[in-house]
Amino acid sequence: MPERFAVLLQLLTEVNGVIDNLIFLALVPNNWRRYKMNGNIRVGNLFGIPFYINPSWFFVLGLITLTYGGDLSQFPQLTGIMPWLLGFFAAILLFASVVAHELGHSFVAIAQGIEVKSITLFLFGGLATLGRESKTPLEAFLVAIAGPLVSLLLFGIFLIIGLNISLNGPMAAILSLLAYINLALGLFNLIPGLPLDGGNILKAIVWQVTGNPNKGVLFASRFGQFFGWLAIVIGALSILGISQFGSFWTLLIGIFLLQNAGFSAQSAKVQDFLSRYSAKDVISPNSPVVPINLTLREFANNYVIGKQQWSKFLVTDSEGKLLGVINVEALKTIPTSQWTEVNIGQLLQTSESLKLVLSHTSLLDVVKILEGENLSQVTVVEENGTVLGLIEKASILTFLAQETQSQAA
């Protein structure tokens, strides 16, 4: 081993606290790709991807700077504030490695036609927010493995530089730390349990074998929970002084893994449940659908006065096909004395603002539409255009609760 690496190993041994902190950088779950954090500061774009920094990131940046800067102060040639300036420089490079890891996920996702809405640095590392999930197991596998491969590639680059360029002292220590951290990011993320990238790789494999992505999530979540409990036990034994292996951070990592693996499992169960039903199963009872041949008086007496308070109604022709909508407020524009003479067709408005879904659309896809387009309801139609009714968010929750209770009984 080259002599210049001796100091690197010594320094790495003394900065375990920094490395334990940075292991959190590997813990950003793919399931959090849609996670929204408040107060993000936009600092620009990365290859066309909006780049944000969450205020919590500055805490970690300061912690790494102070901790590593303190360790660098052991070098006699570093005086004054130089150790902490280099510590800050090292912290920036470490987070650059995290960003590179997220860009690995992002570039593969973009190649699959998936929108990358943002990359954010925050308390636990980096987060690439994807517009949707991959459509096939292979695509999901490629997105998941891209990040660890980038980290391992950076490890190889830093290692080759260290072996072939004569560096000594602080710069050699920083280079060694960068190599070590990227190796840790790559290998740790390959642990086959959610929420880690390795868990998403395992999910893709199970998805390919079973044909069911939710089974892949459930399988990988169980592994994630196992590794979470393992880390908790190791961390607890270390805190109690029973074991020299692990630390307080190991305990926190275990809790993080356990919680997010459990969340992934619950999410998969709900998605699997929703995928068993179609839109026609959850149509709201007494949906606001009326025929075109009604007078305003008939409409008011039979559908508005003393009835469920819908603000608008879907108007259909004699074959049940959608013609437009009528707003209840529009009744106020016609004197009540004329309601028996005026047809609702005279107050008809276009239905362009309505979101239509076919009756055989899976309930899971309906939920994705409601959430993705920020809608409160969708209109369900048959393939021939016949209107069946509305689905509201509230009706889905009610249906979910009722079915869960009936299955438990």
From TrEMBL:
For this protein, the record's Pfam families field holds: CBS (PF00571), Peptidase_M50 (PF02163)
Q: Which GO terms describe its biological process?
A: proteolysis
**Membrane-related topology note:** Multi-pass membrane protein
Kindly indicate whether the keyword Transcription regulation belongs to this entry: no
Please give the cofactor(s) recorded in the UniProt entry for this protein.
Zn(2+)
Main subcellular location: membrane
Q: Where does Zn(2+) bind?
A: 101, 105, 197
The residues annotated as the active site are 102
Regions that span the bilayer: 49-69, 81-100, 107-128, 140-165, 172-191, 226-258
Similarity comment: Belongs to the peptidase M50B family.
Its recorded name reads: Zinc metalloprotease
